Amino acid sequence: MVSNQKHPPDQPPVPGVTEGQSGSSPPDYPDLPAALARLLDRFPQLKRRPHAMLAHFPIVFLLSATSFSLLFRFTGNRAFDDTAFYCLGGGLLTLPATVATGLFTGWLNFPGEADQTVRLEKALSYAEMFITAAAFVWRWLDPLVLTDLSGVNLIYFFLVLALTPLVTASGYFGGMLTFPLEEAAAPNA
Questions:
Q1: What gap in Å lies between CA 58 and CA 11, rounded to an integer?
Q2: Is residue 50 classed as helix, strand or coil in its secondary structure?
Q3: Containing H/E element for 67?
Q4: What is the C-alpha to C-alpha distance for residues 111 and 123, in angstroms, rounded to an integer?
Q5: What is the pLDDT along the chain (189 residues), one digit of tens a residue?
Q6: CB-based contacts of 4, cutoff 8 Å, min separation 6
Q7: What residues contact residue 159 under an 8 Å CB cut-off, 6+ apart?
Q8: Measured by CB atoms within 10 angstroms of the end CB, which terminus of the chain is less buried, N or C?
């Protein structure tokens, strides 16, 4: 393990990544395996940005799955139903990498016991993955599930509808980790 507490002298410090924000102390990163420490020293943006880059893909896919499902119900146009299914698939493909980078970013940037925001975002993310996988498999096995919303088919519809508040809440709490509300703007002089 290599302690990654100090920035290498041959690289300029990066505010917010290797030095902390102005007026704050450098982040207290956990001890890292040597290869990971070298990678993060070479590419300091990997300490925060992979999750932020990936998080938007499942957000768009899953919100679109709900939107296209509703469009299908209102219009009866099968193309909207097919698009909703493809969006569920896109969400399902992008969620594991997004959750993995979120766990990594949380481990790296928020060491120690996770606070309530981190725990809530994790729970919401796991719920999103479970519901997305269930809805995708259900729709794959029954392509006409949205055609008749009676009986158990109504459960599928509610699962897809539930993705919107889950994604919204998860994005909100993830944003709170990146842009905390406690940070007040500089006082006016």
A1: 34
A2: helix
A3: helix 56-75
A4: 18
A5: 444 444 444 444 444 444 444 444 555 566 777 777 777 778 777 766 778 788 899 999 999 999 999 999 999 999 999 999 999 999 999 999 998 888 887 777 776 666 788 888 889 999 999 999 999 999 999 999 999 999 999 999 999 999 999 999 998 888 887 777 765 455 555
A6: 29, 30, 31, 32, 37, 40, 41
A7: 131, 134, 135, 138
A8: C
